[in-house]
Amino acid sequence: MTTFITGGASQIGLGLARRLKEADRSVLFGSRAGRGTDGFTWVPFDWDDASTFENAFKRQDIKPVESVYILPAMAIDPLPKVAPFIDLAIKKGVKRFVLISASECVKGGPEMGAVHGYLEKVVLEKRGLIDYVALRPTWFTDNLSREQYTHIKEHDEVVTPLPKARIPFIAVEDIAQAAFDAIVYEGVIDPEDEAKSGPILIGPDLISYDEVAQILSTVLGRPIKHRIISRDEALARYISYGIPEPSAEFLVEAELNLGKGSAERLATDDEFAVARKVGKVGVKEYVEKNKGVWLK
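Above: the chain's sequence. Below: its structure in token form.
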């Protein structure tokens, strides 16, 4: 059967698609343009245009869609846009949803947490007929080659508002593998089994940004420093990426909470032991594999 992947060519979506293709499973992408990476089938899909939702289920040249990977639209409350698609997908025969949420998003709370809460509600109503997995990764190692790219390459620095926070960074590669595992799992996923329905994804290293800067310095062969910025500077940075201000405010608060140990506890506290899933790619391994990105 086919997996429909929302979010266009997101890093995790592409990693998931490649794994599914290698496993000889059908993949259908949705994007605003209706096209993208060669080797995959695409249809127009836009969270802002509900008339495109049917496109996920119209193709006659592929197997029926039975699983969906959801990357929600970025908003404090994405549910008004996402819920109608979930309802349609269920009517069209989708049996499993895999949501990319975040460790900072509380089920039923703002951002992806709202979608997580809705999925649990509809799955409990149709227990045994559909199920879901809400992946809750901590902060991405890959942000070093995205949000931090210019700072590292051009200014020899990593920029954060976090002097001492220790974080179990997770690589996109490990998140994509977790998404693949969730899609292909053959059993029924109990929504009340948090280890299966809401795993917390962390990496193998619990390190600070000072240590990240040291790893970059060693691998790149030049000094990379960790420069501390203010909350307002961090907020302005997120807004400059095109993130809506309410979501940028949410991200800054989540980032500042790292300094209070929010991510460190995911790796160390017993209360998260059952739901905790540890990836394989450490920060040093990631930097060594991708060092060409930051070479001058």
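The mean pLDDT is 94.
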